[in-house]
Amino acid sequence: MSKVIIYGYSNLGEKIAKILKQLNYEIIIVDFHEENYNKALKDGFFSYKKELLEDEELIEIGIENNVKAFYCVTDSPNNNFFVTLSARNLNKNIKIISKAGSKQDSKKMYLAGATKVINPYEIGALRIFRLLEKPIISHVLDKILFGKSDLNIEEFTIRNGSCVNNKYLKEFDFSSEFNIIIIGISDKELGEEFIFNSHSKDHKIDVGDTLVAIGYKENLVKFGEYIKGVN
Fold it and tell me: What confidence tens digit (pLDDT) does each residue in 169-208 have?
């Protein structure tokens, strides 16, 4: 069984732990707040009450031994930074996912050795909740972090008569309707440039554009049939 350490059992850490538990990972919770530590124990997780500001504490919880990923998601930016730096020094190969509170903090986390950075203040607490609660997202995280998934990535080129032609991506909520994620669009008018996170660009969909989506095969098939429909 793959082992994951989660440092911080506030709202974000709790949601991550419950998702990974469903995927049968061995989970270790570490939190220096008495309330969070007790809650983790009550929820059935093996837990430590430590601040992890000493290398000896990181070694004690097993940071050097067969850990697939280390989530550093406390509510303290200083602790997250320092512990990310220490964990990276002790384990060069571990995947570290750290929480940051600003773009500047995100840059510092990457410099400290984070593999990925979560910034809940940029994407919004509600969006984090919705993403983490969707089953597909747990598998996306699993694929990104641990290299195993039954998801597919498909391309959908917009044809004449499509119900999405001449509309904007922000008008649709494909995630809720089809349980898929649109990760970007290749814009024919821009020389087939691939645009990630195209919602933020208020992008208009035209004939010849190609949407790139990730999801389960059956959901991608349904989505492909849907976008062929006449508006």
Answer: 878 888 888 888 887 787 765 555 556 554 445 678 888 8
Strand partners, 46: 28
**Together in a domain, 54 and 114:** yes
In which domain, by residue range, is 88 found?
3-146
**Residue among 66, 80, 64 at smallest CA distance from 26:** 66
Phi and psi at residue 208, in whole multiples of 5°? 100, -20
Domain match, 12 and 83 both: yes
Q: How many domains does the chain have?
A: 2
pLDDT in tens, 128-153: 444 445 555 555 555 554 444 566 77
How many CA atoms lie within 13 Å of 29's alpha carbon, on the beta-carbon side? 30
Give the Cβ contact number of residue 142 at 10 Å: 19
pTM (two decimals): 0.58
DSSP state of 99: E
Give yes or no for a contact between 83 and 52, defined as CB atoms under 8 angstroms apart. Answer: yes
